[in-house]
Amino acid sequence: MKCPIIMIMTFLSHLAVANAQGIFQYDRLDFFNEAEVRKKVSQAEAEEQPKAIVDEWAEPVMSPSGKVSIYVPPPEVRDFLEKPDPENAKAYLEWNSKRIKKFILAQELLTKEAKELGYMKEVKSFLEPGASLNLKSSSNNTKAGVSYLFYFMLKGCPACEREARVIEDIHLNHPEIRIEAFGKGFSETELDGFRFSARQDNGMSGLFKVTSYPSIAVFNKKNQRYFLSGFIDKDKIIGLFE
Questions:
Q1: Could you tell me if 118 and 154 lie in one domain?
Q2: What total of structural domains would you count in the chain?
């Protein structure tokens, strides 16, 4: 009797264990996966680090992100300083000339834009009600009480060509009058050809609400303002400054 009883009890115990495994069985969770991934990423980053260059030209540079890179001067610089000779000197000068040319072009553009912005601000101050002509500007040597003549011209306009000769006459014979001319449709070379100061319009005519050419704006020492359209002879223009 004992043997059948033992067999029954053994069967029931296996059945209970099987049921328990079915109820409480879970998939395997690996809590070390993330650590392994990070380890691989760190190893990859380490492999990406630049190899150290052991010589006097190597300079480690660290970016804001913490990544280190190695800066080495161009071969033209290294070759010339390591072994100065006519050929290396020529290569260095050519390399440096290209850099200097870029700096010069950039500086010219900045100077031009700064000057244009300065004139825009100056003219806006003229156009404000009650504005005074007692302006000071170290960049263009403007003095208090100087009279101003703004001339607006259009390329291909016959009357503008005649007026330009009048403006040139005033420029040569009346240095007390500061002349600034603004042209539309002219190239830089053509504007440089005028004996008085002439530059691209760049919106100046819009500030004066110019609708026809030629046009002249006068600001005299008495803070009187005049705006003239069409061809104006010299005597009439000079009379506005007296």
A1: no
A2: 2
